[in-house]
Write a structure and sequence with these properties.
alpha+beta; 19 helices; 6-stranded antiparallel barrel; DUF7580; 10 strands; about 525 residues; about 10% strand; single chain; two-stranded antiparallel sheet
């Protein structure tokens, strides 16, 4: 007998048992001698009726949208239950069989015929048949079977709920593309090395604002990722303070994989010789712009970025493939830190909506996966490193479309340093994800986490510190109410590094996938639901 045939057996037995009990209860009302059993049969009928309703709901939930319960008999032959229950199929129908066995024993105690019906129909024959058949009328006689029925039914309910939830998650993971973060990290490191070498000059320091993107919708496989990946930068002279205007150029940087001479523009042939490329080079092209001209002195000071004017001998180099036009190449920009935006100190005149916060949360979570293990992003990164840049002459409404990662390049190339965490802080399994969790909280509340602390949070002996205690309290008590359970889950996983993975290094592909599914995915769903798209 197949598993679903057992379901049909249970669905058939439950109403027969209930009908038989109701028949006996009706007979008792006509026989004063057995009235004491009336008060016991009614609760018994109610309990079995309740278990029947729960069982029907469970089965309908399992096959939701496929079959109505009254058509179950015709459906048993080809149901697809194995696909829905996956590995839980065997244990699921073991519980159904347990219910069937309990009902079979109840039918025996009720002395029903092979068809599951009472062996008499005339109520006047009740006393005679009771003595002959000796069927049980006391509720206590069915205690064991009722307990088994209830336990099996509860197990089925839990298994159904879990299987459906996991099935949805499996389908999402099956169809959801995970970007090749290893390749993205490699490209980001190459870009940094090229800039660090090519911006090293005698004219002073430089600043780069790297545009951050989610890249979660990309469908290119890693084999084509090198040709498809591009980074957008705003390059400026000097170390630029936030909320201060400066002149700079916006460029797109794309990776080239071909070897051989680089095809320079004819306008540049006399200015520099053709460079032979290593296996990995960079391509820089300017976006066209209609911004007004700047004065000749400003252009003379700002347009000739070192990476465009010198031939670097480093392995990673930025080459000009298409000439930058003098007109509109240099624009005036303003930069604002995320801290200034959240605390309303930017004086930008543009409101930072909740929708913007959720968008930025998705991008920052993806950024951690893209830029971990690169010189761009330290483990202890913070809100002040995240900037929003505005090109003068463009609408302010677009300023929050993309965040940028701010990085200063000194006039002398330096090797990025990594700080070693103290032994006390090593209880945090992944510092970069922990920092992301804190940033997600600060982004949600619009305050540094220190301003969210209570006196209880400061009593943090034996923990990583007051920040940890504050994050744990907020996530346990408030964040789900503020932003939804999915956002809260993403924060919790970052703070606790709760991904059910032994290896918690972001250069491990399995861990990258777990973080992508456990953090980026829930944040994307939060954004979609906020937009009414889910």
């Amino acid at each position: 007998m197949s598993g679903l045939e057992v379901v049909g057996q249970v669905l058939e037995s439950l109403p027969l048992v209930i009908s038989s009990l109701e028949h006996y209860a009706d007979c008792i009302t006509r026989t004063k001698r057995y009235w004491r059993y009336k008060s016991e049969l009614r609760p018994l009928i109610l309990q079995i009726t309740t278990e029947r309703a729960i069982f029907i709901n469970t089965i309908e939930q399992l096959f939701h949208g496929i079959i109505r319960i009254e058509h179950m008999t015709e459906f048993l032959a080809n149901s697809g239950g194995t696909q829905r229950l996956k590995g839980a199929y065997a244990v699921y129908f073991a519980n159904v069989s347990g219910m069937a066995n309990s009902l079979a024993r109840i039918r025996v105690k009720l002395a029903l015929d092979p068809d599951g019906k009472p062996q008499f129909s005339d109520p006047n024959l009740f006393e005679q048949e009771y003595k002959r058949l000796k069927f049980s009328l006391s509720q206590s006689d069915y205690t064991e079977q009722l307990s088994e029925l209830k336990n099996h039914n509860q197990a089925l309910t839990r298994l159904t709920k879990q299987s459906l939830e996991m099935g949805s998650s499996r389908n999402e993971r099956k169809h959801r593309y995970c970007p090749g973060f290893d390749a993205l990290q490699k490209h980001a490191s190459s870009l940094y090395n090229a800039l660090n070498a090519d911006l090293c000059c005698t004219c002073g320091e430089h600043t780069a604002e790297l545009r951050l993107e989610s890249r979660g919708d990309s469908r290119e496989i890693e084999a084509n990722l090198e040709e498809k990946t591009s980074f957008r930068l705003v390059l400026m002279h000097g170390f630029i303070a936030a909320n201060v205007s400066q002149f700079g150029a916006e460029v797109d940087v794309q990776f080239l994989t071909e070897t051989g001479p680089l095809p320079l523009s004819t306008d540049l042939q006399n200015a520099r010789s053709t460079a032979s490329l290593d296996r990995r080079s960079l391509r820089s092209t300017k976006e066209t712009s209609s911004a007004p001209d700047q004065t000749s002195s400003k252009l003379e000071h700002s347009r000739d970025f070192c990476l465009f004017d010198r031939q670097s001998q480093s392995k990673h180099t930025v080459h000009v493939v298409e000439p930058l036009e003098d007109q509109g190449a240099i624009q005036e920009w303003s930069s604002y830190t995320l801290t200034q935006i959240l605390t309303r100190r930017a004086m930008l005149g543009q409101r930072f909506y909740q929708l913007d916060r959720f968008k930025i949360a998705v991008i920052l979570a993806s950024t951690v996966l893209q830029l971990s293990n690169t010189p761009w992003l330290d483990d202890d990164w913070c809100l002040d490193e995240i900037h929003f840049v505005h090109r003068h002459g463009t609408p302010l409404a677009t300023v929050f479309q993309y965040p940028f990662l701010h990085h200063d390049f000194p006039c002398k190339a330096v090797s990025p340093s990594r700080t070693t965490r103290s032994p006390f802080r090593r209880v945090i399994r992944n510092q970069m994800l922990y920092t992301l969790g804190i940033v997600l909280i600060e982004l949600l509340y619009g305050k540094p986490i220190e301003e969210l602390q209570t006196a209880h949070d400061l009593d943090c002996q034996g923990t990583p510190g007051a920040v940890w205690c504050t994050a744990e309290r907020l996530n346990d008590e408030e964040i789900a109410l503020e932003a939804g359970q999915l956002y809260s889950d993403a924060v919790r996983r970052c703070i606790r590094c709760d991904f059910n993975q032994e290896n918690t290094s972001l250069d491990d592909e399995d861990f990258q996938r777990a973080v992508f599914d456990g953090v980026v995915g829930p944040l994307e769903k939060t954004l979609m639901r906020f937009n009414g798209q889910d």
